[in-house]
Amino acid sequence: MTDVVLVEVADGVATVTLNRPEARNALSRELLRELPRALAEADADPEVAAVVLTGADPVFCAGLDLREVGSGSLDLSTSGAAGGADQAAAARRGPFLPRTKPLIGAINGAAVTGGLEVALACDFLIASERARFADTHARVGIQPGWGLTVLLPQWIGFPRARQMSTTGNFVDAPTALAWGLVNQVVAHDDLVATAQALGRDVASNDGPAVQRILATYREGAELTGADAWALEARVAAAWQRDFDPEEVARRREAITQRGRAQQS
Question: Domains in the chain: how many in total?
Fold first, then answer.
């Protein structure tokens, strides 16, 4: 692993950091190669239950490295950011390979265009008070290719997504919270610790159950109405075949104690 991506694993949580602060963590050829690799390795690690993705200050990710794009050294078609002329890039539906474990975005600063698409590839987002979000594809004169026109409306609704994409204006952290783009806004210095604590909460659960529920969410997002209900019913029925009631009984007291602790 090169130093454009830093990885730390502790307490069942892998923290992956984009580490090109001098270039605002712009997605260069090297970063586009190493970041998906780091996330895939973390997802495959049996010691990891959840992954936190953040950026080295002062920004989360400024999007594609426009210097490399302008020079022709970064081919958008092979990155998948131009709709995936390369079939392998297109198959991953976004900047990353398919995952089985939760990916928590810790948005420490600006997440712009391709950086916004990287954020949308996460399962949910926690934002620093310094976080800002913008879709500037139209300002640059390129088209989204990592699913922005699909995912952004799922997060904030079509009218707000259209507003972001057609104006290119920034959305600050409080507005992102109000719109549902992020789950929580915290003090900047508390951001990574907050995301890691949520990762440890994930790690405290039954791993296969977490992964199956997460997969059901993702599969259900491809369906509508009755088909999504039928999918969950099939998954639940299949899960019951290997269900251990005694294991639930063993966990009941720990669940009760956790609930009481969260109320205090």
Answer: 2
Which residues neighbour 3 within 8 Å (Cβ) at sequence distance 6 or greater? 19
Q: Which residues contact 78 (CB under 8 A, 6 or more apart)?
A: 85, 86, 89
Task: Identify whether residues 190 and 236 lie together within a single domain.
Answer: no
pLDDT tens profile 230-261: 999 999 999 988 777 777 767 776 676 766 77
pLDDT tens-digit profile of 109-157? 999 999 999 999 999 999 999 999 999 999 999 999 999 999 999 999 9
In a domain, 16, yes or no: yes
Give the DSSP H/E element, type plus range, for residue 54. strand 50-55
Do 190 and 249 lie in one domain? The reply is: no
Please give the residue range of the domain that contains residue 168.
5-203
Cα–Cα distance between 104 and 126 in angstroms, integer? 7
Per the structure block, which two tokens stand in for 56? 């080295």
d(CA 97, CA 259): 35
